[in-house]
Design a protein that fits this description.
By secondary structure, the protein is of the alpha/beta class. It contains 3 helices and 4 strands; from the N terminus they run αβαββαβ.
């Protein structure tokens, strides 16, 4: 839960300067905590999140996010499965997908 996680981190003896949030659901919970406790982002703590956040522009703060093209990954996965079904002799291979970064206003330089 992002709310409880943010609370735990921010009530520690040594407060973090930045927090990486693992997904948008956790990010929303953390943002709620920061808002309720009047913790200023990015002045008091910087945040970044993994995964796309729909309607991010409606939030009081727009987190910087790193996300992958899930539709593209699904399409490639389907193609590879069909190839494997049609030709079982295909050797295993590595395919990499480059994540994208969408900058917001949730980080500050240290």
């Amino acid at each position: 839960d992002g709310y409880e996680g943010a609370k735990f981190l921010m009530e520690a003896d040594v407060r973090p300067t930045a927090i990486v949030l693992m997904n948008s659901e956790i990010a929303f919970g953390a943002l709620r905590y920061f808002y309720e406790k009047q913790i200023k982002i990015p002045d008091d703590v910087s945040i970044v999140s993994f995964g796309d956040m729909f309607n991010r522009d409606l939030l009081y703060i727009r987190p910087t996010i790193s996300y992958t093209n899930l539709k593209g990954i699904g399409k490639k996965l389907g193609e590879l499965m069909i190839e494997r079904i049609e030709n079982n002799d295909i050797v295993n291979r590595e395919i990499r997908f480059t994540p994208r970064i969408q900058y917001g206003n949730s980080t500050r330089p240290l």
